[in-house]
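FW: tagging you since you asked about this chain on Friday. Here's the raw sequence from the shared folder, copied in full. Didn't touch anything.
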Amino acid sequence: MRLRRSSLTQLGLQLLAAAFLIPSLLPSEAQAQSRSRDNWQRVPDVIAALAIGPGSRVADVGAGDGYFVAFLAEEVGSTGHVFAVDVSERALSNLRRLIEDERLENVEVVHGDYDDPKLPDSSLDAVLVVNAYHEMTEYEAMLAGMLKALKPGGRLVMLDHIPSDVSESRRQQTRDHDIGIDIVQPELEAAGFQVIERHEAFVNNGRSRQWMLVARK
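HL: got it, structure written out here
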């Protein structure tokens, strides 16, 4: 099927608007997927990697529909604070609805930019990025923004999809909505992070395959 130029332009704008986030779902769809995800996502291990606790300040960058937000809010408690960052208006709306429905008084929704997570400087104990880094077209600027937001010794925990073919170029991998750990680790180090943990197959249950890197400022 051939598309008219106007249709192609509209499609391009739609794709641009989806940069650095997982497509947002309707609340009912998100809830169903969350229940299934609980079986394989290893949330306690992710929380442990962040090294956070009561009173901590943490950001979920590319938070999407907020799967990790409630877990983070519970972990940091009433004296802590969670920044839920995204660029999609639909995701931001769903995040606000989640906060209202779950009464998450310690969560703040942040409308980030493609090149700036819009986080306060030197104020965070940890940053979490799950299945979103491969969508960050301005990844160098985003890493700089996250590094700037962390306190000295603060942690960045990143998970993303394992590519089916790790020999492909970065552009080919991100086009398929995944990215290899061997591409990402040097990018973190070049940005000024120190990688302290590397898990090449953090999740590998057949359908869901993720690596995890833990780095600190």
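FW: The two ends are 50 Å apart (CA to CA).
HL: agreed, and The mean pLDDT is 88.
FW: great, closing this out.
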